[in-house]
Protein backbone atom coordinates (compact mmCIF):
# COMPACT_ATOMS: atom_id res chain seq x y z
CA UNK A 1 0.00 0.00 0.00
CA UNK A 2 1.37 3.45 -0.90
CA UNK A 3 2.14 6.10 1.70
CA UNK A 4 0.25 9.36 1.43
CA UNK A 5 3.53 11.09 0.57
CA UNK A 6 3.97 8.74 -2.40
CA UNK A 7 0.63 9.71 -3.91
CA UNK A 8 0.89 12.22 -6.72
CA UNK A 9 -0.98 15.49 -6.44
CA UNK A 10 -2.55 16.94 -9.56
CA UNK A 11 -0.31 19.41 -11.41
CA UNK A 12 -2.96 22.13 -11.06
CA UNK A 13 -2.88 21.79 -7.28
CA UNK A 14 0.90 22.05 -7.21
CA UNK A 15 0.86 25.04 -9.55
CA UNK A 16 -1.73 26.75 -7.37
CA UNK A 17 0.42 26.18 -4.27
CA UNK A 18 3.51 27.56 -6.00
CA UNK A 19 1.57 30.60 -7.25
CA UNK A 20 0.23 31.25 -3.74
CA UNK A 21 3.79 31.20 -2.41
CA UNK A 22 4.94 33.65 -5.09
CA UNK A 23 2.00 36.01 -4.49
CA UNK A 24 2.70 35.99 -0.75
CA UNK A 25 6.38 36.80 -1.21
CA UNK A 26 7.65 40.37 -1.17
CA UNK A 27 10.36 39.63 -3.76
CA UNK A 28 11.17 37.16 -6.53
CA UNK A 29 11.75 33.65 -5.20
CA UNK A 30 14.20 30.90 -6.12
CA UNK A 31 12.93 27.32 -6.34
CA UNK A 32 14.58 26.60 -2.98
CA UNK A 33 12.80 29.52 -1.33
CA UNK A 34 9.46 28.40 -2.76
CA UNK A 35 10.13 24.86 -1.56
CA UNK A 36 10.80 26.10 1.99
CA UNK A 37 7.68 28.29 1.92
CA UNK A 38 5.50 25.36 0.93
CA UNK A 39 7.03 23.23 3.69
CA UNK A 40 5.78 20.24 1.76
CA UNK A 41 7.61 17.08 0.95
CA UNK A 42 8.41 18.32 -2.55
CA UNK A 43 11.83 17.98 -4.08
CA UNK A 44 13.48 21.21 -5.19
CA UNK A 45 13.64 19.74 -8.69
CA UNK A 46 9.85 19.31 -8.65
CA UNK A 47 9.40 22.96 -7.65
CA UNK A 48 11.85 23.97 -10.40
CA UNK A 49 9.85 21.97 -12.95
CA UNK A 50 6.60 23.61 -11.85
CA UNK A 51 8.15 27.09 -12.02
CA UNK A 52 9.57 26.35 -15.48
CA UNK A 53 6.15 25.23 -16.70
CA UNK A 54 4.53 28.35 -15.25
CA UNK A 55 7.18 30.43 -17.01
CA UNK A 56 6.51 28.64 -20.30
CA UNK A 57 2.78 29.42 -19.88
CA UNK A 58 3.56 33.11 -19.32
CA UNK A 59 2.18 33.07 -15.78
CA UNK A 60 5.49 33.93 -14.10
CA UNK A 61 8.62 35.70 -15.22
CA UNK A 62 12.15 35.22 -13.97
CA UNK A 63 15.53 36.85 -13.73
CA UNK A 64 18.95 35.36 -13.32
CA UNK A 65 20.05 34.98 -9.71
CA UNK A 66 23.37 33.27 -9.22
CA UNK A 67 23.44 30.06 -11.26
CA UNK A 68 19.65 29.80 -11.36
CA UNK A 69 16.58 31.95 -11.56
CA UNK A 70 14.30 33.85 -9.21
CA UNK A 71 10.64 33.80 -10.23
CA UNK A 72 7.82 36.30 -9.77
CA UNK A 73 4.16 36.36 -10.84
CA UNK A 74 3.23 38.37 -13.92
CA UNK A 75 -0.31 39.00 -12.64
CA UNK A 76 -2.22 38.88 -9.40
CA UNK A 77 -4.66 36.03 -8.73
CA UNK A 78 -7.61 37.89 -10.22
CA UNK A 79 -5.68 38.78 -13.37
CA UNK A 80 -4.68 35.15 -13.80
CA UNK A 81 -8.29 34.01 -13.44
CA UNK A 82 -9.37 36.55 -16.07
CA UNK A 83 -6.60 35.29 -18.39
CA UNK A 84 -7.84 31.71 -17.95
CA UNK A 85 -11.41 32.79 -18.71
CA UNK A 86 -10.23 34.42 -21.95
CA UNK A 87 -8.26 31.31 -22.80
CA UNK A 88 -11.36 29.15 -22.38
CA UNK A 89 -13.37 31.52 -24.59
CA UNK A 90 -10.69 31.32 -27.27
CA UNK A 91 -10.98 27.52 -27.36
CA UNK A 92 -14.57 27.57 -28.59
CA UNK A 93 -15.60 28.92 -31.98
CA UNK A 94 -19.03 30.02 -30.76
CA UNK A 95 -18.14 32.73 -28.23
CA UNK A 96 -21.66 34.14 -28.21
CA UNK A 97 -23.20 30.86 -27.06
CA UNK A 98 -20.48 30.32 -24.45
CA UNK A 99 -20.98 33.83 -23.07
CA UNK A 100 -24.76 33.45 -23.12
CA UNK A 101 -24.57 30.23 -21.13
CA UNK A 102 -22.06 31.75 -18.73
CA UNK A 103 -24.35 34.71 -18.05
CA UNK A 104 -27.40 32.44 -17.71
CA UNK A 105 -25.62 30.55 -14.92
CA UNK A 106 -24.64 33.65 -12.93
CA UNK A 107 -26.23 34.19 -9.57
CA UNK A 108 -28.10 37.44 -8.88
CA UNK A 109 -25.13 39.10 -7.13
CA UNK A 110 -22.67 38.22 -9.90
CA UNK A 111 -25.15 39.34 -12.53
CA UNK A 112 -25.54 42.71 -10.78
CA UNK A 113 -21.75 43.17 -10.59
CA UNK A 114 -21.34 42.26 -14.26
CA UNK A 115 -24.07 44.75 -15.27
CA UNK A 116 -22.41 47.49 -13.23
CA UNK A 117 -19.03 46.76 -14.79
CA UNK A 118 -20.44 46.78 -18.32
CA UNK A 119 -22.33 50.03 -17.69
CA UNK A 120 -19.25 51.67 -16.22
CA UNK A 121 -17.22 50.55 -19.23
CA UNK A 122 -19.82 52.02 -21.62
CA UNK A 123 -19.81 55.31 -19.74
CA UNK A 124 -16.02 55.53 -19.86
CA UNK A 125 -16.08 55.00 -23.63
CA UNK A 126 -14.60 51.47 -23.52
Structural description of this entry:
With about 130 residues, the protein is mostly helical. The protein has helices at about 10-25, 30-40, 45-55, 75-90, 95-105, 110-125; strands at about 60-65, 70-75. The chain has a two-stranded antiparallel sheet. The longest helix is centred in the last third of the chain and has 16 residues, at about 110-125. The chain is elongated.
Amino- and carboxy-terminal Cα gap = 58 Å
Approximate strand percentage: 5-15%
Helical element count?
6
Q: What's the total number of strands?
A: 2
Mean pLDDT: 87
Q: Quick one: biggest sheet?
A: 2 strands, antiparallel
How would you sum up the global shape? elongated
Helix content: 55-70%
Secondary structure category: mainly alpha
**How do the strands line up in the largest sheet?**
1-2
- Report the order of strands and helices: HHHEEHHH
Uncertain runs with pLDDT below 50, 5 residues or more? 1-6
* Rg on CA atoms, Å: 19 Å
